[in-house]
Fold this sequence. Notes:
Oligomer: single chain
Number of helices: 4
Largest sheet: 8 strands, antiparallel
Helix content: 10-25%
Number of strands: 10
Number of domains: 1
CATH class: Mainly Beta
CATH topology: Pnp Oxidase, Chain A
Strand content: 35-45%
Radius of gyration: 15 Å
Order of helices and strands: EHEEEEHEHHEEEE
CATH architecture: Roll
Distance between the termini: 6 Å
CATH superfamily: Electron Transport, Fmn-binding Protein, Chain A
Amino acid sequence: MLKEIDIEKINTNPFELIGKEWMLIAAGNQSKHNMMTASWGTLGVLWNKNIATVFIRPSRYTLGFVENNDYFSLNFPIDRKVHSICGNKSGREIDKTKACNLTPVFSDNTVYFQESRLVIICKKIYFSTLDNSNFLNPDIEKNYPKKDYHKIFIGEIIKAYKNK
């Protein structure tokens, strides 16, 4: 059962949480939503706000959902099988919620999943696209053989839920 927690009480290592356990970025509503696996992102403070930053490639179906909605959710961690499906299959082709046997919750202006250990709800406050002319380390370009630079979204963390 997910229970709301104080954002300041999120007591976890973000390097483990995002980089090793991975997350699902989700957006949308009851009529249409989608999610994707991600292992690149940040949690921190910017502009005097608690924020999360996510990076989404232009080819991802989830990009349109994040672009077209004011809110998105970060869902941590979900079973590796779920991450495999959501990282390798497109919501254009399958219903990932059904394929992963997830229970969507439609609240706080977005969608999130009951099976998550931790959910972070974000309100978009900034977006941009990575500009490779600003890469100071030429090795970064190796991440973009298709020149498909990530779109960046910064969301103010407005709520958090923990599974009890």
